[in-house]
Design brief:
This protein is α+β, with helices and mostly antiparallel strands. The protein has one domain (about 5-90). It is built from four helices and three strands, in the order ααβααββ. The chain has helices at about 5-15, 20-35, 40-45, 50-60; strands at about 35-40, 65-75, 80-90. The protein has a three-stranded antiparallel sheet with strand order 1-3-2. Strand 2 (about 65-75) and strand 3 (about 80-90) form a beta hairpin. Helix 1 runs antiparallel to helix 2 and helix 2 (about 20-35) packs across helix 4 (about 50-60). The protein is globular, with a radius of gyration of 13 Å. The two termini are about 15 Å apart. About 25% of the residues are buried.
Amino acid sequence: MSARKQCLALILTRLPGNDAATQRARLLAAMRELGSITTFEAMRFLDVFDPRPRIHELRHSHGYKISTTMRAEQTESGVVHRVGVYILSSLGDVTC
């Protein structure tokens, strides 16, 4: 398992639960600790089925400055998809 996936697994273990607040906390932790999180990673490794509403809430209800870029990423089945990459502005140190 890659170091990035290990870090995502630790975040999921550290922040259990499936309510919106916990999902937002996991996304924030990933952006802070890894520098960014993709929609694919959020779904696969953080158990956030659709991260877009959580990112919207972080931006508009909680005041976080989060930028979005797009990139092509291949799934386990070999299909390439465009995915969002979320980056928290002024994130400071990357820990993982």
